[in-house]
Structure formats: structure tokens, C-alpha cells
Amino acid sequence: MASEIFKIAAVQLRPILLVLSLIVLYRGHNEPGGGFIGGIMAGMGFVLYAMAVGVEKARKSRTIKPVSFMGLGLFFALISGLFAPFSGVGLFMQGVWTEIELPWGSAIKLGTPLLFDAGVYLLVTGMITSIMYAIMEE
Amino acid sequence: MTVLIPVIIPLSAIVLLIATRRWLIAQYIISMISMTVLVINALSLLTTLQLKGYLTYQASGWPAPFGITLIADQFSAIMLLAVAVVGWLVMMYAIGFVDAARKKAGFFILVQGLFAGVNGALVTGDLFNLYVWFEVMIMASFVLITHGAEKQQLRGAVKYVVLNLIGSVFLVSTIGLVYSKTGTLNMAQLAMMIQQQDVSELMNSYLMLFFIAFGIKAAVFPFFFWLPASYPTPPIAITAFFSATLTKVGVYTIIRFYSLYVDHDGFAWKEIILWMAAATMIFGVLMAASSFDFRKILSFHIISQIGYMIMGLGIFTINSLAGAVFFVVHNMFSKTAAFMAAGLVYKLRGTYELKDSGWVYKDKPLFALLFFLPALSLAGLPPTSGFFGKLFLILAGFESEDWAITITALVVSIFTLFSMVKIWNEVYWKKPAEHTVLSHQPVKVNLLPVAATVAIVLLMLLPGVFAGSLFGYFSRAAAQLMDVESYIKAVFP
Amino acid sequence: MEVFIALIIGFLYGASVYMFLRRSIVKLVLGIIFLSHATNLLLFSTGGFLRGSPPFVDEVGSDASLPVADPLPQALVLTALVISLGVTAFSLVLIYRFYKETGSVDLDELAQMEKK
Question: What ipTM did this prediction achieve?
């Protein structure tokens, strides 16, 4: 990993990949995309960064540990499943949607499936980074 | 909702455990609370089911064939309760037994993952969902079996991972084939299609593929090679968890699928299952007789005893099925108790090799008793639960006049006794060779593992005391298993 | 199309079995990867191949006689993909640790070392 070009590119690529992965995550609602693909993209962003600067530094630069990502993802997924029964709307995993009007006229549809997808996103990101860090560390 | 709780609780526990992974005390408390809730929930499920017969839950509110159905009948409730109680005790044992490094590396998280998968597989009524829970279970077990990454563990793990993966691939490929042929993934709807003869003759070959997949999970005769290679390698608390859950869930799914889908009179199903049962019993017990490692002997005996469960299924009368259910429950308790007793000896002597051990009876009579009772139970001597388990199966065998398998079962149990006596003589009775015991400083054994082992041994004796009433209850569960019509009606009201 | 996909699935299964039977554990992992690809492809093909017919129809103006693709296999494949990703990642870590511990990737060699 001595190449300067790679180092600079990887450092610049991390934020771009993260933003892109969020777009892919949101897009997955009605179009190709979703939590899994988004999670892989985000994970790759972190892994590329770790390849460029070394795992030690990459680990330090993250305030949230990969394992916490996984826990958070599972938490989101559980919440999305339990939202309907606890709010009395329906059964476990039943979809609940709400529409938010934006000031310029359009509206975004948010719902528990998106929350579940966000959970998958975090879980996959956490899994990929933790496994790749573990391999790269040695 | 009670059907859902066995899955939700371990998953929520994982979230909490990850959040508190730095504080061991919190990990203990959360794990124990989770197991306690599982036990209580399983008890309430059992009492509800006595009145209602079935409990179903259509996840996400889609009606039956479209959504994922969760369904519990008495058999799954019995299994849930047994898994939860044994899990509770082994958890207590593990808290005092597993080393701190492993505990800090997510041991409790993985165990909760294991239980999420096991409970999910026990309550699901959907083929693909079953595959997902199996996968959750084996992923957790993959990491548990390699946990700590000792050389010996890794060698066993490679075999374990590859063979279990092949089993999963068989399962999911078959599910794909069934779906493309029938267009359903709902277990009850598939049973309905078979009853109305909507599905082709190919169903037999699909079922064969299913039984190969579950046979690998359950370690039935031609597919058991992963078990003796891998079970003896991790710390014994992990092996105890595995012996209580993994293979038993495999047996559960075999029984479930066989009773739902198989046309017992057609094809050679009965012969196949009984042959497999006999071979499983004989191979397991012979391999146990030829090995000289405490954990290996017990692992081989798991295989041999799976044979008994499959035998009860193969005969397929109400009595034999009830006997099989009884045997599954008995085995979960007795085998796990034996593993836990082996772990205590390991703490004392520092080895699992029979030859290097000895005189445990002289040093610690309690430890000897804690192995003696499970050993009696495994060998099937009265008044333990193992005796009644074998008695019910053998009586059922005589009733239906399946002489060959019944006589095999009797002979095999003599060999089991032989292995147990071998362990007893070598580990507890004989005078140790001079150099071995002196070289090992006995580790101070915590109170917690001993208490857990005492508790499980006492619980293991209970089925022996209440054998009659339990058998009556299991007969009702068995009758319910054979009643496919009402299973279908419970899912499609 | 069906025949073509069936041939590919068969080829992948065959390749994975071949890889499993080699001695090296690196090839074992390759076998695992092929096996999961074959299975995913099999799951994908269970819905049949209907070109140009989406799984969802508009409420208005849809022609009921048009063929509709089955959306379920894609969901199944996605689940199976996630699982096979996890399994592959795990087995990669496993063989890496295995190599670190034993210094060998050859299963037979290892068995001989054990005997000595």
C-alpha cells in the first residue's frame, strides 16, 4: 500500500462513498438499491481508508466501533419490527408509513421498512469493517 | 405474541449485550434475565397450548400463505421449554467456567444468537424462514466453536463449518426446488397440497433432500462425521450448549417434516428411517467404545442416542413418537449434565484423557455422583429418565413388531453401559498413574458451575419420577403431531 | 435461457465439489464461494424467466392477461446473498487464522504432522 495516488484517493473516497451509500439506501425504497448494497459501499469506504492509512489509525479515527454499528443495526431492525405492535397499529413487522411535507411542495415517505433497511445498512457496514479490520490487523 | 417472544427476547438481549459489552457483570445479568424470560414464556406457552392446541402468529399482518407464519404446537412448546431450562443452567455454568478472555470477546452475545436461531427454528411455519433461523444458529455456532482460536479448535472447526455449510446448501436448494414446483413456502400449505395430491411424485425426492439436509444437522448415520471432529474441541461449556441445542433442533425438524409430509405407507420411508436409526446407534456406540477421551466418548454417544430418537420416529405410532419426544427431552438434560460433569473433572485434573486421570471419587465424591447419575441415565438404568425413555421406545417397537430395530436398541444400550463403566473406572475409580496427577495443580472450582451441575442432575431425575404423567402428556403432543389436518386448520382458519 | 442457467448451476456445483475435494483449504473456500453462487442462482431461477414483465402492475389500466414476474425469488436471493456473504467472510477469517496457527494450508500435510 505504498502508492501515494492510492492513499490520497482512498482518503478522498471515504466521504464520497459514505454519501453515495446513504443515497443508495434511501433510493432502495422504490428503485434498485437498499440497505445491503448501501452497507457494502459504506463498509468499502472504511476499508479503503484503512488500507491507505493503516488499521490502527483507521480504528482511532472512528468514534463508533464496528461492533457498535452491528448492535445499532440490530436495534433499528428490532424497533422497526416492534413499532407496529407497540403503537397498536398492527402485528410484528407490519409496515407503518408517514408522509412528511417538504416546504417546496414535494413529500418524502418514511416508514418502518426504511428503518429496517437502515438497520441492515448499519449491520452490514459493521460486519464488513470488523471482519476486514480483523484480517488486515495481522 | 407468546409465539414471537422466544425470538424477540434473545435478539433484544444481543442489542443490550453489545451496548454493555465492557461490563461483565451486566453481561451476566442480561444473559440470565433473557434465559429466565424464555423459561417463563415457554411455561405460559405450554399451559396456553393445553387449552388451545395451536398458537399461530402471522408476522407483518399478511394472511397465511403470503406472510411468514409462526406456529407453536405442544411438541415445539416442549422443545422450547427444555431448551430454555437447559440453557438457563448451562448459562449459569458458563459464567463460572469460561475464561475471562473469551467472555470479553462476545461469548454471551454469541450464545444469545444461538438461542435466537434455535427458538426461531422451533416456532417457524415457513420453509425459508426455517432456513434463515438455521443459518442464524449455525453462524453463531461457527463463531462459538472457533472462539478463542486454539489450534485444536480451528482444526475441528474447518470440518464443522464445511459440513454444516453443505447441509445448509442442501436445505436452501431444496427449498428453491420446492418453491419452483409448488409455488409455496408455507409449511401448512405444502402439507395441504400433498394431501390433495396437487404435487408430483417428485415430492419424495425433495423430501429425501430435506432429510439429507436435516440429517447433517442432526448427525444421523451417513452424515455424522463433523460431530466427533468438532464437538470435543471448544471449552466444554460451549459443547454443553451445543449438545442441548444443535442436533436436537435437527431432530425436531426431521420429526416435524416426517409427520407433516411423508406418506408413511408409500415408498420405503419406514425402512429407510429405521435403517438409518440402527446404523446411527451402532456406529456411534462402537466409535465411543474405541475412544479414550472423556469428551469424545460423550460426543459419540450423542450420535448413538440420536439413533434412538430417529427410531421412535421411524416406527411412527403414537407411543413410539411420544417415546421419541421423551427421549429427546431426556437426552438434552442427561447429555448436557454429563458434559458439565466432565468439565468439573477437567478443572480438577486438567485433562480429558481417561488414562491420565483417576481417583476423582476419592478426592471429590460429589463430582463422582454428578457423573454417576447422568451416566446411569444415558445407559438407561432404572430409576433414571433414560430407563423410561428406552423403555417407551422398546415397548413401542415390540407393539408394532419391528423386532430388528428393537433388538438393536437393546444391544446398543449394553454397549453404552460399557462406555459409561469405562469412564467411571478410569476417571473416578482407578488409582492414577504417579506422574500425571501430581503434575497438575487442581484449579479452584467455582461454586457456580457445581451448583448448576447439581441442579441439572436433579432436574434430569425428575422425568424418571414423573415418567407416567409426562408420558401421557407427550402422547398428546405426539397425537397432535400426527394430526396434520388440524395443523393445516390452525394456519388456514 | 432456462437451459443455459441450468447448465451454469450444474457447472458451479461441479466446480465447487471439485474444489472441496482438493487438499488446500484455500481451495476449500473457493469451493464454498462457488457453492453459494450456485445456490443463489438456483433460487433466482425458481421464479422462472419472464422478460419485460414487472412483478407489480398499475392499479389503472393494467392488463390482467399479461404475465407477471414473481417478486419472491428476488427477496429470497437477497436474503441468501447476505447469508453467503457472512459465511464467506467468516470462512476467509477462519482459514487465515488456521494458516497463522498451523503454518500450513494443506489438510493432508496437517494430518501427517498430527500423527508424528
Answer: 0.90
